[in-house]
Amino acid sequence: MGDPTPTERAMTGRSWEDFCDTLKSAGRTILAEGSPDSPLDRAEGFRYLSRLTRAALENFLEHADPAAPMLHRPVHETAKIGADNPDNYYQTARISGEYEYRIVGTRGTIHYLDFATQSGGVASSGDSEQGGHLDASQLEIAPDGSFEIAVCRDERPGNWLRTTPDTESLIVRQTFADRTVEEPAKLRLERVGGDATPAPLTPEALDRGLASAAGLVVSCAALFSGWAQGFRDNHCNELPKFDDSISMGAGGDPNICYYHSYWALGPEEALVIEVTPPECDAWNFQLNNHWMESLDYRFHTIHVNQHTARYANDGSVRIVVAHRDPGLDNWIDTAGHAQGTMCFRWIRAAEHPQPHTRVVKLSELA
């Protein structure tokens, strides 16, 4: 007898059993040697797996039909992956290089708007390839703020976002400078010449979706935990420039220069970061936990950007990461964490100055 078919697997419950077994195996990443073992880090690690599971099921089961694509938010305030940007409004959709799509939208007032098509592997295997890229500076936009983008393999006049035979997803990044007043772009994605109604769920689609979702949880957790341990072991409390090829393999934005690293501070210590921002569309710095989830920016000041920062007279910026407010500008709250990862970004910058870091005693700050 051969292996059971996807239909047989779904009908007998094997699809579900394998999904649960794979999720269980993901716990080994949280418990692995080298992973932090404080009660907070351990609890957040297992919550992280639950968040990955939720996001993966949305992507691979609920919104998995490229013939009837649906833009949705995979990463947000309670679902976080790979140093998610607190200034971003992320959207994604499952698409295929076999089809042609259009994006219809209005620009809104949000500071930065970016579209990309990707092959498989985003935020999981780390070997995704970008098929096409388009940002608002390249868009032809009508006086009323409306626009339309052709998403397909063959070049079109006007706004065109390229796909390839391997394209599996559309990624939209919208970046706020001031979240309190800016309006995101309003977007609608549709397949050209297709029915917007998803096909009924099949046993094959269930089997495939559960396997893909569980696989993402395992591989994504392992990928970013490995990154975090490498940052900690090689340049803790420093901010070296990140390898562009690695960031692009995980679905990064080619307009962004990333500085990923690790931080760890004692109760009376502070991390001071000093830099003079270059001419750029935007920049920000953020603090994450060990699992590369941004800390809870709903309730804590865990990041700073070009709009919220206080600058010195010479245009430089000093950022202070500390467990309690030192009474200085640009304080970043650790939100009860003793260590974690961190990220600095320059977005479409004329140059990429190196942020300088130093650990000091809180009593030394002035």
Strand content: 25-35%
Number of helical stretches of at least 4 residues? 5
The tally of beta strands, per DSSP, is 16
Spatial separation of the terminal alpha carbons = 75 Å
How many domains make up the 3D coordinates?
3
Query: Poorly predicted ranges (pLDDT <50, ≥5 residues)?
Result: none
CATH topology of the largest domain: Jelly Rolls
Biggest sheet details: 4 strands, antiparallel
- Under the CATH scheme, which architecture of the largest domain would be assigned? Sandwich
Q: Please provide the ordered H/E string of secondary-structure elements.
A: HHHEEEEEEEEHHEEEEEEEE
**CATH-wise, what's the superfamily of the largest domain?**
Domain of unknown function DUF1214, C-terminal domain
Percent helix = 10-25%
**Overall pLDDT confidence:** 95
Radius of gyration using CA atoms only: 22 Å
Structural class: alpha+beta
Strand order of the largest sheet: 1-7-3-4
CATH class of the largest domain, anyone?
A: Mainly Beta
Coarse shape: globular
SSE topology sketch:
Layout: H1 6-12, H2 14-31, H3 39-62, E1 88-94, E2 101-106, E3 112-118, E4 130-135, E5 146-152, E6 160-162, E7 169-175, E8 186-191, H4 203-235, H5 244-249, E9 256-264, E10 269-275, E11 282-287, E12 303-305, E13 317-322, E14 331-333, E15 339-347, E16 356-361
Parallel strand pairs: 5-6, 13-14
Antiparallel strand pairs: 1-7, 2-5, 2-8, 3-4, 3-7, 9-15, 10-13, 10-16, 11-12, 11-15
Helix pairs in contact: 1-4, 2-3, 2-4, 3-4
